[in-house]
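User: Just a sanity check before I run the rest of the batch. Below are the structure tokens for the first item. I only need the designed sequence back.
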């Protein structure tokens, strides 16, 4: 049986903040990159056009700052709080830079999580679990599609809204080749599951107003927690483990 940690692997987590353009960021790319590298304890950094990246040697953690956006990307975390804390550390650094400002005009703030849970049975069995337990395709649906058809695959996109924001999700069974080619391109193919349940969620708001770093960090924490927990519930519903 998979350990609690490996039930969430592979995964990747991303946070992105889009704000009104701030040309002053461009004037400080080199200095900020070196300082942020020390602040986040990440050894590598580089400047690419109008942005700079700070990352570790394995590219498992990366922070990006542009004149109109910033973000954090992490690979294979075993708890959403680790991701949130790194994102918060990035935000605190930017807040400490007078040229960035204590408040920013936020255009879009979002957290994206992507998971694949191992499934020990055949692809067809997982496909049917998604159909029966998650999207609930009934016989009436088959009757209008055609009773003589065979369901080959299923992918379920949904758009929702709750008290925290909007969120888009996509869920479905995946084979290793599809996972490698479409979703986890930078992973070793041997590290991916033969068959797995893919789940993606993009939690976001578009406030188009000024927000403090504290307000932004609070949203990132809530989005990370809610997205992680929602995946956990759906994984248990479909895979039953």
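Assistant: Here's the designed sequence for the first item:
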């Amino acid at each position: 049986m998979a350990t609690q940690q490996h039930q969430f692997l592979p995964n990747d987590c991303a946070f992105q903040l889009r704000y009104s353009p701030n040309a002053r960021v461009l004037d400080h790319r080199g200095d900020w990159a070196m300082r942020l590298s020390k602040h986040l304890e990440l050894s590598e950094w580089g400047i690419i056009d109008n942005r700079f990246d700070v990352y570790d040697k394995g590219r498992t953690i990366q922070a990006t700052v542009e004149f109109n956006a910033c973000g954090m990307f992490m690979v294979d975390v075993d708890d959403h709080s680790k991701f949130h804390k790194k994102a918060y550390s990035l935000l605190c650094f930017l807040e400490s830079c007078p040229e960035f400002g204590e408040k920013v005009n936020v255009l879009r703030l979002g957290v994206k999580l992507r998971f694949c849970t191992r499934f020990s049975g055949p692809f067809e069995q997982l496909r049917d679990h998604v159909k029966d337990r998650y999207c609930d395709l009934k016989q009436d649906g088959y009757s209008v599609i055609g009773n003589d058809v065979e369901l080959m695959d299923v992918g379920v996109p949904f758009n929702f809204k709750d008290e925290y924001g909007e969120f888009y999700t996509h869920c479905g069974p995946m084979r290793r080749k599809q996972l490698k080619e479409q979703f986890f391109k930078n992973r070793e193919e041997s590290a991916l599951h033969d068959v797995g349940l893919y789940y993606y969620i993009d939690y976001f708001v578009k406030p188009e107003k000024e927000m403090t770093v504290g307000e932004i960090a609070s949203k990132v924490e809530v989005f990370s927690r809610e997205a992680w927990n929602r995946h956990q519930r759906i994984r248990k519903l479909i895979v039953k483990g």
